[in-house]
Amino acid sequence: MDVLSGLIHGFSVAVAPANLMWCFVGCFLGTVVGIMPGLGPAATIAMLLPLTFKMDPTSAIIMLAGIYYGAKYGGSTTSILLNVPGESASVVTCLDGYQMARKGRAGAALGIAAIASFIAGTVGVIALMLISPPLAKVALSFSSPEYFALMALGLAMVVLLAGKSLVKALLAMLVGLWIASIGTDLFTATSRFTFGHSELLDGVDFVIVAIGVFAVGEVLGNMEQREAPQVLPVPKGLRNLLPTVEELKACRFAFLNGSIVGFLIGVLPGAGSTIASFISYGIEKAVSKHPEKFGTGVPEGVAAPEGANNSETGGALVPMLTLGIPGSSTTAILLAALILWGLKPGPLMIQDNPNLFWGLVASMYVGNVMLLVLNIPLIPLFAQILRLPVELLYPIIFGISMVGVYSVSGSLFDVWMLSAFGLLGYLMRKLDYPSAPLILGLVLGDSMERALRQSLMMSQGELGILVSRPISAVMLGLAVLILLLPLFRRANAWRVRALEENG
Amino acid sequence: MTRTLVAALLGAALLTPAAPVLAQFKPTKPIEIIVHTGPGGGADVLARFIAQAVEKEKLASVRMQVNNKSGGGGLTAMNYVVEKKGDAHAIAIFTGNWLTNPLTQAEAKVTIKDMTPVVRLVLEPAVVVVKADAPYKTLRDFIDAAKKQPGQLKQSGGSITSRDNVIRQLMMKQTGANWAFISFPGGGERIAALLGGHVNMMVIEPQEAGEHIRAGNMRVLAQIAEKPLAAFPKVPTLKEAGVDIPYVPQVRGVVAPPGIPQDAVAYYEDLFARLSKTATWRKYLEDQQFEDGFQRSAELSQFFDQFTNRMREILKDAGAKVVR
Hints:
The complex is a heterodimer of chains A (about 500) and B (about 325).
Chain A: H1 3-14, H2 17-35, H3 41-48, H4 57-82, H5 91-102, H6 106-141, H7 144-156, H8 158-161, H9 166-180, E1 183-184, E2 191-192, H10 206-223, H11 245-250, H12 252-267, H13 273-287, H14 300-323, H15 329-340, H16 349-352, H17 354-375, H18 378-383, H19 390-409, H20 412-430, H21 436-458, H22 465-468, H23 470-502
Antiparallel strand pairs in A: 1-2
Helix pairs in contact in A: 1-17, 2-4, 2-17, 3-4, 3-15, 4-5, 4-6, 4-14, 4-15, 4-17, 5-6, 5-14, 6-12, 6-14, 6-17, 7-21, 7-23, 9-21, 10-19, 10-20, 12-13, 12-14, 13-14, 19-20
Chain B: H1 2-15, E1 31-35, H2 42-56, E2 64-68, H3 75-83, E3 90-95, H4 96-104, E4 116-124, E5 126-131, H5 139-148, E6 154-157, H6 163-175, E7 180-183, H7 187-195, E8 201-204, H8 206-214, E9 218-224, E10 250-256, H9 262-275, H10 279-288, E11 291-295, H11 297-317
Parallel strand pairs in B: 1-2, 1-3, 6-7, 6-8
Antiparallel strand pairs in B: 3-10, 4-10, 4-11, 5-8, 5-9
């Protein structure tokens, strides 16, 4: 079936009233789940799975996929308004989104996040539809050395996330890498840094650290300032709650960057949306004309990561649908669902079930439009949260954070850890350590270590394997370039100063 | 008179153990099934299937409810089971991990020996696969190639304590060949490594491999099963392929908290014995390509000891740090 006739057929499936309804149910649930910190799309899909047994598999996958990409839309809301990452992939959105909100541009930030999500989500579906099979083959050529190089590239972004002091950023990153190493080592089955606590055997959940360091740390820091009656300014009038033309123009490249980077990283089974959003944020900052403004509330800093984590969804579906290989925890559950419904996910599934594939693709176009329509009117409403006086808002943020963390595991130990990381976040703020590098180290640490050890096991200890393969060599080269960036800037600044003094 | 009474009492006492089906235990509230994975995980799917099947076949007077106690590498669930001491309304799904993991986890405060064995239910077979364009047509080819270049060939799999590695250790010991084992956290990454040509071989569940074989991406060299699987009638078992190692299945079954009354154990044994004879259960085993591994409490207790002892030896050979 060629693409056009496939798509037409797909739309005939997707716009059937029942499927439209399930698509809406999925998108709506996804938005809700995305807004709530803690509970992620993977857990939601798993909980709803038993309800889908009696449904038609096409309707069911349309609904479950709706939850998956819908959650990516909702995830930005609490990141921007409260500095509480709603989803692991929305951590990067906190960096500039929350700063925009502090400047009174909360509505604009939410609007940009929704538009970026829509554009990138749609680009992701188009790419999924057009280039899935060849791309899936390319993804297979990625192995541990390439993953190591990709993670190294991601880690090099630390120089772009650093504030005033690169040393402090590197220290924060090392702490992140250390936290990533807590838990059971996959290769030897020995536990590391658990201090006898069985709760730590699975490692520290990324969500706990992110919510602790960002949200709890921020609130603790703000509570010291007594004078502010209201946390953030909220301008009156609908126009001030939506992004301006200039802001949207500034995001042109970010929309594209987020869409492409997100999709490509999504296709790789060993990466993930958090890495995608970090890398697209880094690229955006590296090519920006005003990189120094990143972290103070620039719209591109919201558009790039939000775009990346949405088009990642389309990418992640590529290996799952074309090869039957899940690339993330959510796609793993979707795959389990397909098996439970009696389908056989694998290389032949698209051929055997064109209804399902094309119906799903078409429903994703419909779903992205639905999500945009669903999210834009909610923006003015959500922005009102910030009108609450701090005596109410701070306890609410604490409450949301604790319930969010507790809902993931149902363990009080995790709530204690949240408090500990909240305190760490507060201290880092006090001592002027940036928190983004810590999160970066935590996200990449585990997979980077694993990729390095896998590579060395493949080459029997020969480090050359990391640079003898073209893709990994190129990426490592890029990483070195990024690391040298501050040196270039310094040299440039010195040259300018020298010229000025001479002249 | 007294003599007949004594005889009658004696007779009754002698008869009782022979008729455990007449046990007095009757559940009075919903039965909790504890699993160590989140929703959607292997043990969770099995537990939910059991709950559904018991309800559908009307095997129990009460409902069964799944309770996900994930985290702590399975220890959270195991601790929880032991804390439920004496509670006859709770059971748990155990997997091979419950037996193997505490061997290397110093953090484990309990082992499966602290619980009451109930029944063993399923054995999951596996197949040895290579990429379809690999030069190895038989398992012998692979082993000969591994012998020629020791340590050069690679197998993708899970952790060092996983079944994949146990089979590799046993095969290497038996044949004298030597190849590398590369751990990947997810099943998807393991398959991707094989299909991308980055590793040479893997041990995989037949159901997981089925579609890749049908699409012509993978070739099966041998099956790890006691009887040849219905889906692979022509594929030799390890023994037939010339590698005679003990059968290492992935095992799943049911345990209960410690200290529950004997009649409650008998009740659950009987419940699962009846479940394992239903058509619903038969079809489930067939769909999943599982083997029926039904064993009662006494046999299961012996199985735990044998399995744990064998695993301890294998893990020591593999270089893992065994703590108990």
